[in-house]
Amino acid sequence: MLIPLPDIMLEPVVRATLLEDLGRAGDITTDAIVPPDHRSRLALGARQDGVVAGLDLARIAFRLMDPDIDMIVHRPDGALVRAGEAIATLSGPTRGLLTAERTALNLLCRLSGIATATAGLVDAVRGHRASIVCTRKTTPGLRALEKYAVRAGGGGNHRFGLDDAILIKDNHVAIAGGIRPALQRARNHAGHMVKIELEVDSLDQLREAMEIGVDAVLLDNMGPEMLAEGVSIIAGRAISEASGRITPQTAPAIAASGVDLISCGWITHSAAILDIGFDHLD
Question: Is residue 199 flagged as an active site residue?
Fold first, then answer.
């Protein structure tokens, strides 16, 4: 079940985005053309197939511009939508509707694009044990929202920041003088609730890590055959994660190796938007 983010988390982002658009004088185009008492009904409509995410952000954008705007959702976050299908219908004062339009669409299209990209990878590995997870390669200031969009697309989340798990990467290992001292320092520093993951790029590194013990292993830039051997070495003693330039085309073979997780940065940093329009009904 997709659990929505609370409005208290969303509103500061939406408010800042609206203020950026309103600038110093507000929407001078709409204010010049549309009478103050004019009312309209418009639809948020999909212009291509995809998965919806970010409707609460759109709702807040319209509400902040005018609390008299009503929004009826037809296809909620996490739902598959087809081109030409209405996602939501809005009605109320026209000035507020038009002024909030771009902020609402920017956020909705962005998150829906991430959800759609995630869903494509989830479909690609269906039938295997592997789950699709995102990374910290997110838009600054939008991480919680983009990770929510990944969940809307059927994926899961890797760590949210530097403070919720230890991930030892190649530079950490090099500076520490090897895998063993890096893991020992991490174990001495971590609290009992903190998981420790180690990135490896060879099976020799993996064998050393498994001798010492670790909660999870990130198998970086390995092909399917090497990943399968790595999974055999781990033998259920740690969570196995594959990463490195994974696409919907390469994901099935990677998932078939038996890894637990497939992490992808591009689903948040490079996903194309889902094209959604805002069309006048009456």
Answer: yes
